[in-house]
Amino acid sequence: MPSCRFQSFTEPSDPAQVAGRVAALRQALAAQGLDGFVVPRADEHQGEYVPAHMARLAWLTGFTGSAGNAVVLADRAALIVDGRYTIQSAEQTDTRVVTPVRMEESPLERWVEQNLPAGGKLGYDPWLHTVDGVARLEKAAAAAGGSLVPVAKNPIDALWSDRPAAPSAPVKAHRADYAGEDAASKLARIRKALADAKVDALVVSDPHALAWTFNIRGGDVEHTPLPLGYAIVPREGRPTVFLAPEKITNEAGDAIGAVGEIASPAELEAQLRKLGAAKARVRLDAATAASALATLIREAGGTPDAGADPIALMKARKNAAELAGTRAAHLRDGAAMANYLSWLAREAPKGGLTEIDAVAALENERLKTGLLKDVSFTTIAGAGPNAALPHYRVTAASNRAIGPGIFLVDSGGQYEDGTTDITRTIVIGAPTPEMRDRYTRVLKGHVAISRLVFVKGTSGAQLDAFARLPLWQGGFDFDHGTGHGVGSYLSVHEGPQRLSKLGTTPLEPGMILSNEPGYYKEGHYGIRIENLLVVEERRIPGAERTIYGFETITWTPYERALIDVNLLDDGEIAWIDAYHAKVLEKIGPLVAGEARAWLEDACRPL
């Protein structure tokens, strides 16, 4: 079996362990006088990617997806996940003990309200829930006639005998020419935002915000260069960064020390109590700040102010240096994709390739650039029915041969100058008419987003339907957002910007988003097409409003064999032909030999 530097193919969960672990947790809860416990897929920073020692949901239930909650009561247990993970959750847990529940049908709070017994005490770890999340759970527990009870120590930790150690990756400085703005300038903007909001200090609880503000990067979670830590930024005076000193390189220490102080994470609670004692009004990020932080401030006499972290929008609007870097990263990545897809086109029809072979080959092509720091997420490489799982992760147990039919590959790279994310769906052999119809509908939605112009103030929720309309017209849809924000050598999933029914943040120039509609026929095949886009201002003669549109920055051909030109209108054909011409222009000089010949053929006008 081929190996990868950044990915493994071991089975991450074992359903056979679930029954014993749930029983042990119930016994521990009973000893504490609790009738139930909520286990979120979260660490104390509410990040999408959690370090191994914080993966309590996976340890308990076997479920390894990126979002979900478990609730364990004395007589029942639920694993609540969204539509992306309906199939995966049922496969990874022991359904005799834990019942998978679709979040769309029964959100966490509704499940608690309907299942917590009257008088029941539902425990929770206040470091793993936000202030708003706790308020919703309290309301649900009260509606059931029960109560929500914080616990000082998470009961799972005492049961987890082989729990991994906390991460200790070095914290490094991020190059100034990639960051495009120094930390002192960023802190001045943050302080102005605090003054405008009439708060005395900000607790930086999101590690992405910490990394961006101080121009540092780490390696505490998989595939995202994050240092896990906190900072307190006062409206006046120097900030304090809470990171284990032994993790900080000299260069990063000098960079932080130029603008602030460095303290051990153990000192955070004392500093929060000090703010509280000074009667400070302290802004907490409603999206990532743990309820425990608010309690520490409030009990000391301060006022926790849960709201928007001003850093989130600052970080989302990429500056010129960040945009130049991500464009360069996408050219490099596009050349790697061309080399990879040309290899796949030659080798897959011969038979003998597996999903793992395909993952390893793609990672190797990115490594050949000499600049790859990591993949930006675990590669999704699904053949046949595995392609119908939007967040499929191949393991040695699930590894399928790549045979005739659909093959979907969703992948990305982490480079110091930018983060990439691209999905292409290809076909081995002759596609069925149905496959061509579904692919072309997805492509039409993808092109519709790419061509959009919209007035300033428009949010992703207002644009999401354009990607779905061609599917809706056939009676189809997909159960994920059309697109997510993307960071600059940070997380491949960045907020607050998103193309989604839930995307309420107005889109602004400099924001990077994915454009990835899909179609999934359970048990048969799946289709997704993804490019990254940058929001930019458009000059329209005579326009009375400020108008924005999208710049496409991903350069890889679409699958010609799956395109039914009869389903495309003239504008769509013209856009696809123009895109392919640009792909050849931008990537052509970076590839040679068989890859160049493949690229020229793939980029022919429709």
Write the layout of secondary structure elements.
Elements: H1 18-31, E1 36-40, H2 56-61, E2 69-73, E3 77-81, H3 86-92, E4 99-102, H4 108-115, E5 121-124, H5 131-143, E6 147-150, H6 155-159, E7 172-173, H7 176-179, H8 183-197, E8 201-204, H9 207-214, E9 216-217, E10 230-234, E11 240-242, H10 250-257, E12 261-263, H11 268-277, E13 281-285, H12 291-299, E14 303-307, H13 310-316, H14 320-347, H15 355-367, E15 372-375, E16 380-383, E17 405-411, E18 413-415, E19 418-419, E20 422-428, H16 433-451, E21 453-455, H17 460-472, E22 483-485, E23 494-499, E24 512-515, E25 518-521, E26 525-528, E27 531-538, E28 547-552, H18 570-587, H19 593-602
Parallel strand pairs: 1-5, 3-4, 5-6, 8-13, 11-12, 13-14
Antiparallel strand pairs: 1-2, 2-3, 7-9, 8-10, 10-11, 15-18, 16-17, 17-20, 18-19, 21-28, 22-23, 24-27, 25-26, 27-28
Quick structural summary:
The chain has 606 residues and is α+β, with helices and mostly antiparallel strands. It has three domains: 145 residues, Creatinase/prolidase N-terminal domain (Creatine Amidinohydrolase, Chain A, domain 1); 144 residues, Creatine Amidinohydrolase, Chain A, domain 1; 283 residues, Creatine Amidinohydrolase, CATH 3.90.230.10. It is built from 19 helices and 28 strands.
